[in-house]
Design a protein that fits this description.
four-stranded mixed sheet, 157 residues, 47% helix
C-alpha cells in the first residue's frame, strides 16, 4: 500500500493540487522503494504555500527570519529503515523561492519541486545535512532517487 499524501495549496500560483499529486506520489514511492521501506499505512502532508508563510514558520520553528524553499516537520525522529509509522510528518514548499531557484538554475519547475519533495521526505525519515558526512549521504540518496525519475543530478557540477 503506498504512502497516503495529503496535499494542500494555499498559494494560487501553484495551481491545482491535481497538477502536483502524481509528481508527489512518484517521488515518495520511489524514495521508499529505494530505501526498501515497508510503507504500511503511512501518511505525509505537503503544504504548497508562499514565501511569507514559510518565512513565518522558519522564524518560529528554526529561529531564521527568512524564506526558504522547503521545511520538514517529522512526526517521529530518525526512522531511516524498517516500517514507516502511520504519520510521517509535514513538508512545506514555498512558491516564490522554488520558482526563482528553478529559473536561476535553468531547470523545469517540476524537476526542482521533485527534488525538494524528496529532500523534505528524507528529512522526515531522519536524514539530515548538518555535517559534511550527513550532507554527502543525503545528497547521494537524492541523486540516486532523482536519477530513477530521469531528473538531472542537482549536485553535479
Amino acid at each position: 500500500m503506498p504512502v497516503h499524501i495529503d496535499i494542500s495549496v494555499s498559494e494560487d500560483r501553484w495551481g491545482d493540487v491535481s497538477q502536483w499529486a502524481p509528481l508527489a506520489e512518484q517521488c515518495i514511492a520511489t524514495t521508499t522503494q529505494r530505501l526498501d521501506m515497508d510503507q504500511a499505512d503511512s501518511e505525509v502532508s505537503i503544504l504548497m504555500t508562499d514565501d511569507a508563510a514559510i518565512q513565518e514558520m522558519n522564524a518560529h520553528y528554526r529561529g531564521q527570519d527568512k524564506p526558504t524553499n522547503v521545511l520538514s516537520f517529522p512526526a517521529i525522529a530518525g526512522i531511516k529503515t524498517g516500517v514507516l509509522p502511520p504519520l510521517l510528518g509535514d513538508i512545506v514548499l514555498a512558491f516564490e523561492t522554488i520558482s526563482r531557484e528553478a529559473q536561476i538554475e535553468g531547470k523545469p519547475l517540476e524537476h526542482h519541486v521533485a527534488h525538494l519533495i524528496i529532500h523534505g521526505f528524507l528529512h522526515l525519515l531522519g536524514y539530515d545535512h548538518e555535517t559534511d558526512a550527513q550532507a554527502r549521504e543525503m545528497e547521494a540518496m537524492e541523486s540516486l532517487i532523482l536519477g530513477e525519475l530521469n531528473i538531472d543530478d542537482p549536485y553535479r557540477d
